[in-house]
Amino acid sequence: MVMSQWKEHMAENDVYAAALAGKPHETCPADPYVLVFQNPEIPGVRHLFFDGHSKGTGTWMHLIEGEDRALLIDTAFGVGDLKALVETLTDKPCDVALTHFHGDHSAGAGQFGKVYCHKYDAPYLRDSIRSGHRLLPAGDFYRPEDVQPLDESLEIGEMEEGFRLVLGPGHEVEAIHMPGHAAGGTMFLDHSTGALFSGDAILSTPTLILDRFPAPHYPEYMTVTAFRNAIRDFLPRLDQVKALYPGHGRLGMGPELVTDMLACCEAMIAAPEEFEEYDYVDDPAQRRIKCVGQAMVVYSPSRI
Fold first, then answer.
1. Mind listing the pLDDT tens digit for each residue in 177-214?
2. What is the distance between the alpha carbons of residues 302 and 83, in angstroms, rounded to a whole number?
C-alpha cells in the first residue's frame, strides 16, 4: 500500500524531532527545558527548542543577535527561566516579538516586560492574560514552580505589516502579516540574511485553520482565503528568502514551501470537500487535511 504524501511528510518530521537531542546543542542551568542550537550558516542566529514531550508540542524560538540589539521571536509555554537563558546567550538589549498569541508561543512573554505582536492578535493576547487561561504541556517532566506567571502589566507593542525592528546598521527584521492560523499571524524576514521566521503559518507540519480556535476578534482573518491572499501578496518578494525557520517541525525549509502552500490553499478553496482523513493526532476537530507538494493544511470547512 502506498503511503499518503502527508503521512510521508509527518514521518520525516518525526525522525527529525527524534534526532534533535543528539545534535550539537547547548543547555543552560537557568532553563534546563530548552535546547540551544547554533544556526550552522548564520553566526548571529540561535534556535531555542522547548520539548513538550508529546506529539506536536515541540516549539521553536529564535534569537537573532545584531550589532546593537538582539531579537527573540516567540517565548514558548512559559516553563523555565527563559529571560535568564537569553541573558546568558547575549549581552545586547533584547526585543521580544511574537509570531502569534497562542500559548505555546506567547506564555513566556511576561518575563520580558514588553512584547511586540500584530495588532489583530493583541486583543487575543490581552484576553488570554486577563482570563488566566494558558496552554501547558502534558506530563510531569517540569516543576510547577518553574511555570512563569502571566503578567497583566505586560506592555504590548502593536505591529502592522511592514513594522521593522532595527538590530544594527543595515540590519532590519520586518514583520509580514500572514493570517489564517491566527488573525494576527506574523512572519519575520531578516533582510541581512534572508532568513524567514515563519511561525505556525508556513512550516513542515500542517498549518491549522480550525473552527475550534475562537474568533471574537477579526474573524475574517482566520480563514484559508485570508491565508491564500496574504501568500499571494508576499510571493513577489520570495526571492528575498533563503530559508524558513518556523515555530514547529523542521528548520531550514526552502522557499519553495511558500509556493506549495499557495497551491494547497487554492486547491482547498476550489474543492473544500476533497480532502484526506487526518489521523496523526486523536482529535475529532482535526480530521480534514489537504497536501500539495510539501505543504499541508488541516482545516475546518467553515473556515474556508
1. 999 999 999 999 999 999 999 999 999 999 999 999 99
2. 39
